[in-house]
Amino acid sequence: xxxxxxxxxxxxxxxxxxxxxxxxxxxxxxxxxxxxxxxxxxxxxxxxxxxxxxxxxxxxxxxxxxxxxxxxxxxxxxxxxxxxxxxxxxxxxxxxxxxxxxxxxxxxxxxxxxxxxxxxxxxxxxxxxxxxxxxxxxxxxxxxxxxxxxxxxxxxxxxxxxxxxxxxxxxxxxxxxxxxxxxxxxxxxxxxxxxxxxxxxxxxxxxxxxxxxxxxxxxxxxxxxxxxxxxxxxxxxxxxxxxxxxxxxxxxxxxxxxxxxxxxxxxxxxxxxxxxxxxxxxxxxxxxxxxxxxxxxxxxxxxxxxxxxxxxxxxxxxxxxxxxxxxxxxxxxxxxxxxxxxxxxxxxxxxxxxxxxxxxxxxxxxxxxxxxxxxxxxxxxxxxxxxxxxxxxxxxxxxxxxxxxxxxxxxxxxxxxxxxxxxxxxxxxxxxxxxxxxxxxxxxxxxxxxxxxxxxxxxxxxxxxxxxxxxxxxxxxxxxxxxxxxxxxxxxxxxxxxxxxxxxxxxxxxxxxxxxxxxxxxxxxxxxxxxxxxxxxxxxxxxxxxxxxxxxxxxxxxxxxxxxxxxxxxxxxxxxxxxxxxxxxxxxxxxxxxxxxxxxxxxxxxxxxxxxxxxxxxxxxxxxxxxxxxxxxxxxxxxxxxxxxxxxxxxxxxxxxxxxxxxxxxxxxxxxxxxxxxxxxxxxxxxxxxxxxxxxxxxxxxxxxxxxxxxxxxxxxxxxxxxxxxxxxxxxxxxxxxxxxxxxxxxxxxxxxxxxxxxxxxxxxxxxxxxxxxxxxxxxxxxxxxxxxxxxxxxxxxxxxxxxxxxxxxxxxxxxxxxxxxxxxxxxxxxxxxxxxxxxxxxxxxxxxxxxxxxxxxxxxxxxxxxxxxxxxxx
Length: 875
Hints:
CATH superfamily of the largest domain: Ribonuclease Z/Hydroxyacylglutathione hydrolase-like
CATH architecture of the largest domain: 4-Layer Sandwich
Helix content: 40-55%
Shape: globular
Distance between the termini: 56 Å
Radius of gyration: 30 Å
Strand content: 15-25%
Strand order of the largest sheet: 15-14-13-12-11-10-23-24
Structural class: alpha/beta
């Protein structure tokens, strides 16, 4: 049995209760923690009354829960900043200047014109006041001013004492609902401030520490850098970045597209230094020691001493720390003929790490590493016992058992954090994991070691590894091409994850019982009740894939994409539409290529796509492109590359820009239905309760505003070219139940007046150049997106008077260079009596519409807005 083996595995149950206490303290308020403690106490008392639990272990388990709660609360109480008085100014958008004395305590990362490191701060002079003595860490980012600064930054090392002159800022909160919360992440690292430094001149090295952890780790950094440069000599191009990640755990030079390919197939665990790498290291070193005829006890002593060194050299990430601690405990147990139970060793490792730092529990790598390892220990023997002994197929059946259990155990955390699961992940792992771990990793390690003895021998091993890598790339590319096998999953709730693991444990328990019967009498074996948890897991997976399938709530989300537009609409029938996708505009000048980052931020790849996946958008029924300017379409390329799209609607023109051409070409290549929008198109009903119709452009206006078709081939050659896209923005009125939303892209006053003319029955063509204002009132809309991010020449008084919006939304970037939204527009909105919401101040703005009501929520608090700009949350 697995539960309750209390007497045989006391450390396991102690650790389980400790993890439960730490989790309760992290996720619940005081009342919730007390209820969780009371529930545990009742469970322990019930087991005591049933005679299934010793009193001493019951007391230890409850003590573990209480100790974990106290430890986490104590850690939270101490996790504060000594600069609390400056928090309000920083939050209000007036970050203070500061002179900081600190020591670099992390590896220094140089990426294009950005240098980043963490610093242990000793003192800070903020706003010209007297220096304050501090003992806290800060995240430092240096924006290099010129290319020679790269050589200066390359000399900065961990352990250097530095004086920093920069600006103190608070880490950004999640500005989209469910988005990445940088502030929360840094809080778990005990960091509360960012130091933004302009130019290498803002960093002065004043000395160097000699006897400290940072100084010692600097030697490890230097060794990793030295080994990495050796890898660069052995392997060419992309291969060197891949092998540095695989063998040394250095991911900075790993090709981003290759990493995303591995991520889709669930293969990134290969690139994380973990138990596999530690096992290869111990096995290789043990083989050498045995060849040297070292005694058994001495060999174990040397291995125990070598493992921590390897952990430090590999970067000391949670996965390698878990493997290292387990290896040391296991080696010590083997040396002294003590405890050899895998779960006990794993539990001891988890307990040590959490006692040292309770915030490890929130790290994805910690959760995946320990959960999957525990699942393999518990599940693989049970699953393997049900399979044939295999004979010559034994190795393949062993691999199948390991892969199936690993997939089942990692599935909940994978879809929670990464929101995807590839149906070919199992065969990909069965094919590539053994190939990489048994061939590529040993070859790469051998090439590195041989190169120090005789470089040509190392290069020969590297050549074999290159051939193996090419095979890996070919297989992963082949498997990844099957887009229909890649499924998108919304992040499931916590109760679903807990229930999944409970059912999985029940299944392992039943299989353990059945496997005994199977070994005793194969002919009479029946799975019987073991199918019940299997069917329950299938039902849970189906529910998690579309948890809102029976909900008829419409949702309109104005995503925060900075200086751009992106609106996600879910209709009552569960269909999804995306209007624009934001875009990252580059102001890079010729000769500044050195500023380019290895994997630069791109709003579609890094913000829009993750949000769509987290919300379970399996397919976009249509992408509506208001116009072809970069701040509206730049992010859509990543959307089309990642999420299936049925239809693309745009204004029917082309623009001579690489992103516009690539977007339309991608739509054609992927066989997406492409439709040119215009006012004459009939109303489009998305479902019974939702519809939209186009207000703009008029077909003749498209022709009059466009230039002659540009030369070229394909789709763009047959379409009119329009360099100025704003006045040709696709504008539409969307109805959800009885609520109306108006979207007009980047329309200016000219096209706004033309639309008003058309709405009132005047010819649209002449109105495009007319100066008359049409002041009549039309039907009131519930929500209007202010055109062109609140530009001065949009959202005219007559436009607002005609549509009479109850609420307006402006999508603009924080501290944008254009001054959006313009004060004149804000005043016109106030004069119109409409409420105002702003993504630059409130983050994502989300409306939920039912038959009877409409509710709105914002991702961020907006205390700085006036009463007029912060209407009631529900109307």
